[in-house]
Design goal:
139 residues; alpha+beta; Alpha-Beta Plaits; four-stranded antiparallel sheet; two-stranded antiparallel ribbon; globular; Transposase_17; DNA binding
Length: 139
Amino acid sequence: MGTYEDFRAGRHVVFKMHAHLVFVTKYRHPVFTDTHLQRMEEVMRRVCEDFEVELEEFNGERNHVHLLVNFPPKVAVSKLVNSLKGVSSRLLRKEFEDLRFAYWKGVRLWSGSYFAGSVGGAPISAVRQYIEQQTRPVV
């Protein structure tokens, strides 16, 4: 079951809830460089902090990113995802001119869909290793 250190506690709850999230770029365009991914990780860590979510692992490739999050029961995964995608799209397109021009005016960075998988049955170390092995583009 794990050690007590593996669990998080709130005022009235003790929990251990993880999800593996995958976001794909709109039209699967291969637009990300390592610089984009580094900045995106910073942005997504800040959004997670606002939700009291731990971003345990982040990695990505030219057209998608993987996140492993540890979240409290009060957080709706759909609301977290909407915020992660919305804030990262807005900030990255504002900060990186090349991302602004990769899509025409008003088109968001991310596809409207996403993958969210519960990681309760898999060892967290296995999911972490999988995400770590996703390669970042060489730029």
